[in-house]
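Margin note: ligand = 1-deoxynojirimycin.
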Amino acid sequence: MPKWLKDAVFYEIYPQSFYDTNGDGIGDFNGIIEKLDYIKGLGCNALWINPCFDSPFHDAGYDVRDYKKVAPRYGTNSDLYRLFGEAHRRGIHVLLDLVPGHTSEEHPWFLESQKAEKNEYSNRYIWTNAAFQPAKGFLYIGGETERDGVYVLNFFKSQPALNYGFLNPEEDWQLPVDHPDCVATREAMKDVMRFWLDHGCDGFRVDMADSLVKNDDEKKSGTSAIWRNVREMLDAEYPEAAMVSEWNGPEMAINQGGFHMDFYLNWSGNGYSSLLRDYEMGEDHSFFKKDGSGDILRFLDEYLPRYKATRENGYYCLISCNHDTKRPKYNLDDSELKIAYAFLFTMPGVPFLYYGDEIGMRYLELKTKEGGYGRTGSRTPMQWTSEKNAGFSTCPADALYLPVDTAEGAPSVAAQEADRNSLLSTVKDLLRLRHEEEDLQADGDFEVVYAERGKLPFVYRRGSLLLALNPSTERVSAPVAEADAGKNVLYAIGNGEVKGQEITLAPQSFVVLK
Ligand code: NOJ
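Resulting structure:
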């Protein structure tokens, strides 16, 4: 396990929209470099950069055309290497986004694979034996290639699935996982990883990490075996490199697959969405809404068994949002977000903050861009100042990659840096506290002290610290242990105190007691 993860706090950057230094309306590597001090000042010491590789951008870069070359719109490979160096100089680690499940249909491997003559790449993708033979049970495309066959997709039409084999092949076009051509796909992906690790990257966020082996069993043992093999390579060659999976199945990703971290994703009705995004299920009873109608047990009942099952082997991580999800500001105001972030940044695992969430950027209703559809509204330019294009770019407004939020009162970094009570200041305070108190870091003990169905506050322990939060506008109390009676307030949003064996919290409050 890379040691640096213990105190890591990630900042996710959608490079298109972070900071544009050459005035072409789209973010670039130099822009990220210029803002590293900002990121460090925020308290984040690790980056996850969304795919920044050469691509026709039918899915914002998740359709890679060349794994080893960056997209010219962000700069050159040398600029990215410089970014690694500048980040490291500031104690910041950098994860790139690895897309192992599919490539762009314009990737040279695919262009070879679709040829009628058999060649080294014929089996790099999944093909049936004839254009009139469907790939039953899969999304597939036929009628477009020189080759007489249909090919399987992994996501959009532009993303043919790479071939890692089938756990239990049922048709003659389905190769077993140990077929040399399937092993070659895995080795090709390891080669891509080595390339970036050798140039200074610190690991990968892995896209659709559970999607490699087809006809996999319920426990995804075929796909996990591939990741185990990758982990063995990393342990031997790059022991400080970190891997975080987009999986949302920590028992599989961490315990079986050997990922160091797995994210909790916002799947409708799951424990995580009950905290911040309950509206997708109808009436909004998100736990962090100030009407207090939420229920922390909807989260804990699901989270705790997973946390306990995986904590010896890795980190089950919480995110503020990501490029696929509506921003938390969509349904929570800044006072609600402060309590929500207090929770996210004091829980075990490694927290992930999506750019702009630290100032409460809004979700905008926008027409789709680069395959974003409903996700586009969470991908708008970072709001640095109240100046032209929110300080993101000097280009004419109509040349921007996506429009900036021009609403009156739209938040900006500059305005919030000048305000002690801003969301940004609260995020900085919380992250400072996390770095100062070892008990709050990724592997510190976590224990629920008070969590009752439909009741508040929520009280929990991290190591020797007692924490309590009350998202509601009512004053609330809960019993605590005798040993907690003498504890003092180390940090508070609002007010909270322990008297005798009772903890009381003022409306919308969060408190850490030591
Ligand atoms: C998950 C990524 O986060 C998403 O943005 C992308 O569209 C799909 N995987 C396909 O790669």
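The pocket of 1-deoxynojirimycin is lined by residues 59, 62, 99, 155, 207-208, 246, 323-324 (CB under 6 Å).
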